[in-house]
Amino acid sequence: MKTSIITSLTYQNHITGPGHPERIDRVKVINKELRKxxxxxxWFQPKSFDHSIIEKTHNKKYLNNLSxxxxxNGIKFLDGDTIISPGSKQxxxxxxxxxxxxxxxxxxxxxxxxxxxxxxxxHHAESNKAMGFCIYNNVAIGASYLLYHYKYxxxxxIDYDVHHGNGTQEIFYNNPNVLYISSHQYPFYPGTxxxxxxxxxxxxxxxxxxxxxxxxxxxxxxxxxxxxxxSFKPEFILLSSGFDAHTEDPLAQINLKSxxxxxxxxxxxxxxxxxxxxxxxxxxxxxxNLDALRESAYEHVRALIEN
Length: 307
Known about the structure:
The chain is α/β, with parallel strands linked by helices. The chain has helices at about 25-35, 60-65, 90-105, 140-150, 165-170, 215-230, 260-275, 290-305; strands spanning about 5, 40-45, 75, 85, 115, 155-160, 180-185, 205-210, 235-240, 280-285. The chain has one domain (about 5-305): Arginase, Chain A, CATH 3.40.800.20.
């Protein structure tokens, strides 16, 4: 089976304004780079989906306020750095639709795994607010879809974005059916993610990393992630794939190389093959140096293809 890539042209209509790091070119350079895989992947665009799944993740008050917030022209700030434009609504819905489609494809064994090349990202969005460039929490909605639509009992979310996924943690902090694992620079934005934050059922594992952490130290820490996965034995794994732990990224100070994202992915896949028949869906989060981003995403998808 092949790896599927799901993306949407509407990502180009999510306008964040000049100088904003979460910009159109992020997905554009990734998609251009992934075209090099040619026959090893298949491309899809998301379809419409039942929006009620979003209400399993975000509360109705937030969703109602959000629906009234999208401007008819220009841009608008949802918080200090989360910007929306007239095209942001459909782009955000298509980002959610991408992970829904990817889950369907992998669960039904049409594709062995999938990568969603989308924006806006999602892991900072909490149940009741937008935050950190994120509108809907894409990966959390994907986990809700697995729980409520497919009736899975154990879902793991692995988040290796350099920033802690405060939104994903908040949404599932009291849900024993979801294991959330995050490796991230700490202390750092958004301020959460200490090792003391464990969830109500020991279902949260945070791996705080010091500024300046290099590859060898990172992979020593990564063993804790793999050990937790083996213990929890998820039936499906979702990846919040941020590539901003790269040494060239302007928004953080972790010193990974592009090839390290191949190794990260490969190690997760090795465990996934043993405990959940390799069922993995990955979705783009951060990464803001364009050259580092396209190289790292390429290495990530190369590992998915080779699995």
